[in-house]
Amino acid sequence: MAKRAAGRRPGDSGTREAILGAARERFAEQGFRETTMRSVATAADVDPALVHHYFGTKEGLFASAMAFPFNPADVVARMLEQGVDGLGERLVRTLLVTFARLGPANPMIALLRSAVGHPPAAQMLREFLTGAVLDPVATAIEVDRPRLRAELCASQVVGILVAREVVELPELRAADTATLVAAYGPTLQRYLTADL
Amino acid sequence: MAKRAAGRRPGDSGTREAILGAARERFAEQGFRETTMRSVATAADVDPALVHHYFGTKEGLFASAMAFPFNPADVVARMLEQGVDGLGERLVRTLLVTFARLGPANPMIALLRSAVGHPPAAQMLREFLTGAVLDPVATAIEVDRPRLRAELCASQVVGILVAREVVELPELRAADTATLVAAYGPTLQRYLTADL
DNA sequence: CGCAGAATTCAACGGCCAATGAGTTCGGCT
DNA sequence: AGCCGAACTCATTGGCCGTTGAATTCTGCG
Where would I find the HTH tetR-type domain in this sequence (chains A, B) (predicted)? Predict the structure, then answer.
C-alpha cells in the first residue's frame, strides 16, 4: 500500500469528478446512510478529508452527486410533445434506455435507495418526481383525476425499479426491452387515459 | 428518569413480546441498519443488554421479528383456491386488508425497507416472495411464461408499497380501497392471464 | 522569482453503536 | 426451605464514522 505524499498533484487531476462518480456509485448501491465518506474516498483513491474539503458535509456531497448528467424535465417534455397516444409505451422505453445509459452511477437508484431511512432524501425524491414528472404529466393528459393517474403510473415505474434493482427478481432482470415495454406500456396507458 | 433496579421483575412481564413488537415497528420505519438495538430497547422500555440476552445479535433479533402473526402461504393458497377469475382483484384487496390489519408493526414493510443496503434482508425478502407467493401463483395459473407473469405482478405490488410508504405519494395514500382495487386489479389480472 | 491560494494528506477528537461479562433479583421446582 | 436458572441492569470495550485543523506540495498570477 504505497502511501502518497501530501501536497498538490501536478497537472489536471480531475479529482473532484472522480469523487462525484464514486459517490454516485456508492449511493446507488447502498443508499445514503450505508455509504461512508471513507468508502467514497477509497473508491476515488483519495483521502477522506479531501471529500470534506470539496463538499463540506456528507449531505453536501449527496446533494452534488444527485445532479443528473442531463435535464430530466426536458426528456419528459419531449415525450409529452408527441401527444397522449402511446405515451405509456414511450414512458417505459425512455426509462429503460435512460437506465442503460446511466450505468452504475444512477442518481434515480441512489435517490430511491437513500429515501429509505433517510427522510431528507425521501423529500428530494418526492420533489423530483412531482416537479419533473408528475406535474407535467398530470397537466398534459386531459382526463379526470389527472394527479391520481400520474401517481398510479409512478407506482408501477417505481415498482419496476425496486423489483429489478433491489429485490432482483430474475426474470424481470433477464427480460429484454421489447418484452418489458409490451408488458408495462399498456398498464401505464390505461392508468393515463382509460376509465378507472 | 427513574432508573430501575437490576434483577428480575415480579409477575408475567411479557417483555420478550414487547421487544419483538418494538423491533418490528422500528425495522418497518427505518430498516435494518438505521434501527439501533438501543432504540428498540428504549421503545420497549428495557435495557439494551436485555435485547442481546434474548436474541443474541441484531441479526437474530431481526430474524425473530420478521415472523408473521399468520401464515402468508395459507392466505395465498386460499386466494388461489377460488380460481383464476378475479384473482388480480383478490390479490390487491387482500394486500390492502392485510396491511390495515398489521398496522405499524408490518414485517413486509420492514423487510422491504431493510432490503435496501442490507443484502441478507434482501435475500430474506426474495425468498419470502418466491416461496410464499411467486411459486404458488406461477404454478396455479396455466399460461405461458408463468414465472415472468408472477414477477410482473410482484413489481406492481412492490410499487404500491414503495409509492405509498416510502415515497409517500399523497393521492395514493388518500385513495380508498375500492379505488385502488379498481385501478390495480385489472393490471394484475392482465399480467396473470392476458396475452403479453 | 515570489507568493497567495488551491489540492492533498495525516493525525486526531468525540460520538454512537453492537456486543460482552459480571452482578442483582426473582420465579419455580424439589 | 433451598437452589438453579431465568430475567434484568450496569459498566465497559473495541470499532467505525463524520468532521476538523494543521502540515505539505504544487499551480498560477504578478
Answer: 13-73
The reported pTM is 0.92
Nearest-Cα residue of chain A relative to residue B130:
A169
A118, A151, A187: residue with CB nearest B172: A151
Residue B39 per-residue DSSP state: H
The tens digit of pLDDT for each residue in A135-183 reads 999 999 999 999 999 999 999 999 999 999 999 999 999 999 999 999 9
DSSP classification of residue A163? I
CB distance B183–A191 less than 8 Å? yes
Give counts: helices (H), strands (E), chain B.
12, 0
Strands (DSSP E) found in B11-161:
none
User: Above pLDDT 70, what percent of chain A?
Assistant: 96
- Grid cell in block for residue A51: 471529500
Say whether A70 sits in a helix, a strand or coil. coil
| Across all strands, nucleotide nearest B10 (CA–C1') | C26
Is A92 an 8 Å CB contact of chain B? Answer: no
**Which three cell numbers mark A84?**
397522449
